[in-house]
Amino acid sequence: MIKQKALLIDISLCIGCNACQVGCKEANHLPAPEEKRLSPTAYTALEEHGDLHVRRLCQHCEEPTCKSVCPVGAFTKTAEGPVLYDAEKCIGCRYCMQACPFRVPRYEWSSTRPRVQKCIFCAPRLAKGLQTACAEACPTGATKFGDRDDLLVEAGKRINASGGKLVQKIYGREDVGGTSVLYLSPTPFENLGFDTKLGNTPMPILTMNALSKVPNVAAVGSVMLAGIWWITKRRADVDLHENPSKLIAAAQKRDEK
Amino acid sequence: MKTLTFPRITVWRVIATTLILAGAIAAAARFTLGLGATTNLTDEFPWGLWIGFDFLGIGLAAAGFTIVAAVHLFHADDYEPIVRPAILTAFIGYMLVVLVLVIDLGRPDHFWHPLVMWNHHSVMFEITWCVILYTTVLSFEFAPIVLEKFHMHAPIKWIHSISLPLMIIGVLLSTLHQSSFGSLYLIVPNRLHPLWYSPLLPVLFFVSCIASGTSMVILETLIMSRNGRTLLSPELRANLAKITAIALAVYLVIRFQDMVHRGTIGYMMTLTYHSIAFYAEVLVGFVVPLILLMFPRIRYSRRGLFTACIMVLTGFAANRMNTAITGMEVYPTRTYFPSLMEVLIMLGIAAIGFSAFWLIARYLPIFEAEPVTPKAVAPEALWPPLPATDEGI
């Protein structure tokens, strides 16, 4: 059984050196210039919130919304954790961008053959047994790579050991059903641009509530429609044959033509 | 044989031609320069005007399935004369939506992928299939009109032999994807403003499309029933308006009951960017026309009906645009306004729609007061046995 990998990002340890982005860009062959926001060429970026730096990247959800909404199944969730995208399948409907609860996917708007771009959790490096480039580059340990279960235990220990310095929440542990990127923060998450109202239910459930009714609607609907067709037809026939006057009127109407 | 003459130049023709040409140029720009250079779509706002237009087109095309269901499945035979205009409206509506979708897609060359790459968890996948299948059904429903023009009766007979299952499938597909457009937004409770977000979105989308579909048909019969031709008697028109009113009433009950139930009614109480849009939509499109249509005098008056139906369609458009755009905006930090190119492409496509309707209505038997039903087109399945015309006898 493959152990699920994760990243633990401790915002209180981040010094904003941007080494993670540099390492990421190098590993993923992206243009080098520093970027302050996520873009098709920046799979991760540091957002400044006062003197804190919040590293943003794809959360790699356990139940990815992007994977569920994509009409052609261009997204896959691998056993190790990475959520991957296949540009060869993508039709460019951008539903993933619309639906992602973390607003992560970026689009190559300037291209005539645009692709959706986001962090790939260094899947090729993982396959070689390496850790993600960002975790490797981080000089302070603000980003740590490891097995998800182990990191959750460690995160809990860090919160307890911090003596109240870290808030009592591991963002990503259960949010939208859990993610492969976990955050610790010294200040309430909502102050740092995190959506803390997403709830713990995976978003795809919301859609499945409606989609699961489709077979029923189709089955009941077709029987009902056919029934109504038969009853109304029968009613008209009976009416016509029980009322000789109507029968004659209809016949006359026919003759007129 | 009529000789071909240079078409007469009228104001409408000039406007339509200009819009179509401008739209074609804008579309060419979109394909050569990409979406980024020609639209105001961004990573923050990946869906814009075109998606709203799709909702609108599909909603107006609801005329097709409601009337087909009423006449051919529920045997409300009096409405027979408006079946063809309704099918034509639906057919054109869907064609336009497919056209807009292909322009909107980032990779139009991959548009066929949903046919072979399936993800049945995706609402978008369900919609794609419903639209494809329903457009196919519509072409079958529309084909006899074309075939009739060219006196090809054998295929008509063939189509009519499968017409009952065809129509049932058509009505089901419509029901499913009209509501699915609402389901698209079920997954964004964090983004769509609470005045529009609801778990009942699919139900609301379905009910409102019945109001817009019937309004669209009433409007068409009003516009086409000039010059001494009457498509529908005032009584039948008034009855249709009653259905519109019922749909509006049901819609309002569901929507407000849901808002009270989920405690989102409070967002109505303060005057904000969103609540103003909400009031405009609900008052103009639902409440006022409902009140108007409750009076028999208005249901029987051409002008009254015209006003009410225009209001329903305006409100319907506002509702879809609000769901697609306004409700997704965070005022004033995250807003969207369409680019000129987006508007031009939309107008050009709308102009194509109107022109197509006009041309087809002119050259094909759409608005025949007495439907042309040659021998082969009088199957028992479609019309009750006796009134079916039988020219042979």
Task: Report on the architecture of this protein.
The complex is a heterodimer of chains A (257) and B (393). Chain A is built from 9 helices and 9 strands. Chain A is of the alpha+beta class and 257 residues long. Chain A has 2 domains: 199 residues, Alpha-Beta Plaits (2-Layer Sandwich), CATH 3.30.70.20; 44 residues. In chain A, a hairpin with a 2-residue loop joins strand 2 and strand 3. Chain B has one domain: Formate dehydrogenase/DMSO reductase fold (Up-down Bundle), CATH 1.20.1630. Helix content of chain B is 66%, strand content 0%. Chain B contains 15 helices and no strands. Chain B is globular and about 60 Å long. Classes of the chains: A alpha+beta (257), B mainly alpha (393).
- For the record, the CATH class of chain B is Mainly Alpha
Task: Please report which band the strand proportion of chain B falls in: under 5%, 5-15%, 15-25%, 25-35%, 35-45% or over 45%.
Answer: under 5%
The biggest sheet of chain A, with number of strands, parallel, antiparallel or mixed sense and barrel status, is: 3 strands, mixed
Q: Which word captures the global form of chain A? A: elongated
CATH level 3 topology of chain B: Formate dehydrogenase/DMSO reductase fold
Secondary-structure class of chain B = mainly alpha
Distance between the termini of chain A: 79 Å
> What is the global morphology of chain B?
globular
Q: Give the strand line-up of the largest sheet of chain A.
A: 8-1-9
Order of SSEs of chain A: EHEEHEEHEEHHEHEHHH
Rg estimate of chain B, integer Å: 22 Å
* Number of helical regions of chain B: 15
Poorly predicted regions of chain B are 369-393
CATH class of the largest domain in chain A: Alpha Beta
